[in-house]
Amino acid sequence: MAETNGNQQRQWPRYYYLLVPLVAILLTLAMIELLLALFWPVPPSMSMNMYYKADPVTGFAHEPSAVGRYPTGILAIANSQGFRDNVVTVQKPPGTQRILVLGDSFTVGVNVEMEESYPQVLERMMNESSDTPVEIINAAVGGSDPFQYAQYFEHHGSKYSPDEVMVGFFVGNDTYSTTTSVEQIATVVNGQRVSRKAAEGSFVQLRVMLHQNFNLVRLLQGFSFIEVSTTRQDCEDFSHNLLNIARNRLRNHRVDLSSQPKFSANAVNQIERIKHKADRMGIPLTVLLIPDELQINKKLREGLVPPNELHIYDFAMPQQLLAEEFAALGIATLDLLPFYVQDERCLYMNDSHWTPQGHAVAASAIAQYVSDPARKPSSVPGTAIHPGAVSTSAQQVTLGEAVTIIHSYVDVLRARGEKKSSIFDSSLLPFPKDRIKAAAIVLNLAATDPAEKESFIGIAKSLALYQPDVGDNPIPLEGERSEGTSWRSVVEPEMQNTERAFAETQR
Fold it and tell me: What's the predicted TM-score (pTM) here?
């Protein structure tokens, strides 16, 4: 391009021919970004989370005082100590009971407000019912696993002088974790967790920064989620993302996997590391077994497991396996599964985490557990307890697990068109026969507890399809005989009505 002035012709510098198109392109991109931001903001990918930093002890941790954002738009803020929690003094105030909670995204409270996470709700509940001030320190980090829980507690567990430590152990991720070193854990680039291999790639920091800050980049990269909301219309409203997550977790409940301790050995070893530290500190340890929705939502299972494959799975596991392994080490467990099995509300979101109501259920269960005067310190070997559980020589089954087993049998028999008389046919049993026997014992004993009778009668319609040969009298366990009525006498009216209805379906 040239400018003519009389007989003289002005020649523009060569860089001008490159600069003008470049400026035009940049202005166009800026205009597109502005329009997207104003009228069609592209949501961040699901990797948006708390803002992280690399950590030499745990691999990654929350960046203190940093602000992230969950896909729902909820702010994910870490305090100056790196916790998604209120700031606490390092030195414990005199007369204060302090509980340190470790865990992953369930305990952090992903996609709910900080005040709605179960550690926060638990703290409020305990302070309302106790004359002693209570502080719950939520040291959980989303995406972490048992190795990282143990690493944190070994290096920082005594810093805040806790009186007790709890581990939010999500059975869907933690049970079969194989992590044993920091080198196996993701690292952090620009506040985001990335694999160590990816972090070594060229321009990775630039790509992360662009993705984090520009709608247009997220659109072009194809990482955006059309549905940001994780709420459901009802308990059968599953997103594609949730179904993919649940499908990947099905393997956790396979009988051939969940019944063999060797597969969960590493996770158990990591929790044992925490116990060793807690013992040295003279404080109790409790593992909170957090259930997967697959164990609770029958419709979710039906959408993923064909009827002819139900026998492959035991959806009461791996809690029983873990409880036995931890009990052998003197580690207390609180199995939260029964509390969710008995609650008819939809307590999970479409990101697979709890709703605020789901967090409240967990907090209520833990508050009840903590306030139990019969609770024994788990730091003393051999005193581990499993609330709501009944032990036999071979099994330890909670009421919730027993209910789950019974419901699973209902599914199997209905799918095969079998009658109740087939219940102990070994070819039909998807679980070991002694587990069914143990479940029958638990159901028998449950009727002796007035507090359990109401919920127990609620499952009578399922029980009516089966009449385990436990007899009409309370069953002695380990030399002790239960007092009270048998399960059969408690649910007899319901059983008779349901048997008649079931007989109609078999004609």
Answer: 0.68
